[in-house]
Amino acid sequence: MRPPPPLAPAAWQSPAWARCLRRYLVQLPGRLRPSAPLCGRASELSGRLSAMRGLLCWPLPVLLFLLQPWETLSQFAGPRCRTGPLDLVFVIDSSRSVRPFEFETMRQFLVGLLRGLDVGPNATRVGVIQYSSQVQSVFPLGAFSRREDMERAIRALVPLAQGTMTGLAIQYAMNVAFSVAEGARPPEARVPRIAVIVTDGRPQDRVAEVAAQARARGIEIYAVGVQRADVGSLRAMASPPLDEHVFLVESFNLIQEFGQQFRGRLCGKDLCAEGRHGCQHQCVSTPGTFRCACNPGYQLAEDNKSCLAIDHCGFGNHSCQHECVSTFGGPRCRCREGHDLLPDGRSCQARDLCNGVDHGCEFQCVSEGLSYRCLCPEGQQLQADGKSCNRGCREGHVDLVLLVDGSKSVRPQNFELVKRFVNQIVDFLDVSPEGTRVGLVQFSSRVRTEFPLGRYGTAAEVKQAVLAVEYMERGTMTGLALRHMVEHSFSEAQGARPRALNVPRVGLVFTDGRSQDDISVWARRAKEEGIVMYAVGVGKAVEEELRQIASEPAELHVSYSPDFGTMTHLLENLRGSICPEEGIGAGTELRNLCECESLVEFQGRTLGALEKLTQNHILLRVGGPGWRGGVGPPRPSAASLTAHWPS
């Protein structure tokens, strides 16, 4: 047997020299007498051993150091692999076919591989299981956070030396080793799970089906076969692509070749560090690639880069009465404006702002949202102060025709303000077939009836029709509009009530400039027909024309606003003017008072009213107590009663 070559500088680190030294020393004990001390009997060696004399006298720790598997340890020299978080489990075959020195090589391989990984709770977590006919956990993923503790557990590993149940080991790794209870990170953390299976023979159970289940659960499997390993079984276990996940080495001494390739896979480029990942929140580096992750409270979108807030309310189990708000901690209930959340965190209660405050409402206060409003009894309207009420026109009957200037000088945006102003007038009218009837005429160079008096029976219908009116533009023929009103708008065919019913007829002209035709004739004719005329001027309206149009006195029938934006202040004046002071009651039947039957009824009611006044001592009977004149007849007529106002 040839002794190892002489030691050149740094030659002791050569893997080839180390292999030669081990082979030489394995045969060395047979050439020594067992009873002779190793150093003292060196002179008895044959001439072929003379070159080893100095070596044998080295201290025993040095010899043991030289006996280490240099090719396994030296491959991991250099900087530590910096990967993203991994859950890495080694599945080691310790069946009886693995001889002791081969198992020792595998053990050293694991230790060396650990030294090249970035191990830690937030980096790579490592677990080791060994198997033969049964499966044994050497240490789980969550057991150790320090590399030294892992190495100590691996060095203390004792092989099981039984059968080869690889399928059972894969199932254990899938169900136990990669469980959260054993230290694996939860699936939603999206930390890669990698299993490295090292075996030297053919499995004694089925591996294809259980390996497919493990891969379906997101476990990436590397299959490493040594010596007698079955290639078909390795390919059935490994993840695709197979050329990157299946390794076959001739002996355990060459297993470091897999270690180099595996470490190269883990220590690829950090694609997150290059800054071109496109992740909205977080980039997590994984072997050879990267993945995007989201901050707490968010989930990854379909593009696997963007993050969307988790909609906890979308699950439909929040039980909120009003609104559900999704927060990082889960769903939270919220009430609509004007409501308060009750202690149960789900129900809402309306906030009563009228209670306990000086709201100042004359009649009724209604709480709404963050404020309140005042209401008036039926038939009365809220005043400008928003608190007091008046009777308005709710008990009057009027036929009202509105003449609206649609000339081009008005302009579209101002025409919309005019329509809004008209609807505000409608708001204080009792629009109904028996109450107030409203018609609308627009004029420019021509005249167009937008809707006649008899078409709509409610205020809502009138207001909707007003909003639908389209702007005409062109000239300003106010005289033509007045003629149309007199001849057509107040006709019974257009919905006006007969004159015999004495329903007031009111015309309201709205204009912003000088008329292009004569207005005097038809303005006078309208008044002669008994139509009460009102004139509303805006901007460049001519006062002389407004006075010609309006009834007397002009102070009550003419209104003016310098611009369209401020004309709403005219509403109160118009309401007080248009509404009749003594309207016919809404419940009163309109009849011709000239009919004989009506006249008799009128006399009867008058006598009854006077009798009540007499009984209440408001009127004194002629000749009765307090009367200073002569004695009257026992049953006086209405003409024999006179009023007396007590001092």
From TrEMBL:
Residue stretches making up the VWFA domain: 87-262, 399-574
GO function term, MF aspect, one: calcium ion binding
Compartments where found: Secreted
Major place of residence: secreted
Name the record gives this protein: Matrilin 4
The keyword Disulfide bond appears for this protein: yes
Lineage: Eukaryota, Metazoa, Chordata, Craniata, Vertebrata
GO cellular component assignments: extracellular region
UniProt source species: Canis lupus familiaris
Superkingdom of the source species: Eukaryota
Cited InterPro entries: ECM_Assembly_Org, EGF, EGF-like_Ca-bd_dom, Growth_fac_rcpt_cys_sf, Matrilin_CC_sf, Matrilin_CC_trimer, NOTCH1_EGF-like, VWF_A
Record's keyword terms, sorted: Coiled coil, Disulfide bond, EGF-like domain, Glycoprotein, Repeat, Secreted, Signal
CDD domains for the chain: vWA_Matrilin
